[in-house]
């Protein structure tokens, strides 16, 4: 896992995020707030225009929330409809709970290919708001969830670092904030 560190202190190729799929995003946020994790940055609706789910055009919308606990980002994801998705799969198989870990990928295409060569299916891919590509590999045969690869870009690092910086100095005020409130 050699390489540079992110602006929020994790190795670039290390585990950047732990994610959970939830039935009710705001109830889940409240539970994490009770544990002292916050502030939470929320995206109420996301439908990636270029998303692919298991080789087909993705039609599933989600809500997402991000916060930091120390140097680790916590992500909460709630499906907003009944369309098939990597999130709906987990909810239907075992209910709310752990969904994936996310790793940074400086050589995104090479790393996606490496997982695929090892037999892990590409379950979902998209471009996120920072312009970075993401890919979810179905590693559930060997791990408790998916692995998400996040293309490491200066914009994505700045976005995550802004959330980290907010958590470092958070005094409990404004516990839920929109993504648009971030300055990076």
UniProtKB/TrEMBL annotation:
One Pfam family, short name: Glyoxalase_4
Q: What is this protein called?
A: VOC family protein
Q: Which organism is it from?
A: Sphingomonas chungangi
């Amino acid at each position: 896992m050699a390489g540079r560190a992110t602006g929020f202190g994790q190795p670039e190729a290390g585990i950047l995020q732990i994610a959970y799929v939830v039935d009710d995003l705001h109830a889940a946020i409240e539970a994490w707030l009770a544990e002292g994790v916050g502030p939470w940055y929320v995206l109420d609706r996301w439908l990636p225009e270029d998303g692919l789910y298991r080789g087909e055009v993705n039609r599933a919308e989600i809500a997402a929330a991000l916060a930091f606990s120390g140097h680790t980002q916590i992500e909460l994801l709630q499906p907003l409809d009944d369309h098939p998705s990597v999130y709906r799969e987990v909810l239907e198989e075992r209910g709310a709970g752990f969904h994936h870990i996310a790793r940074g990928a400086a050589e995104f295409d090479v790393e996606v290919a490496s997982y695929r060569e090892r037999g892990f299916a590409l379950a979902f891919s998209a471009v996120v708001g920072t312009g970075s590509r993401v890919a979810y590999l179905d590693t559930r045969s060997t791990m408790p969830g998916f692995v998400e690869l996040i293309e490491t870009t200066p914009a994505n690092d700045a976005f995550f670092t802004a959330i980290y910086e907010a958590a470092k100095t958070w005094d409990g005020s404004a516990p839920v904030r929109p993504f648009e409130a971030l300055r990076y």
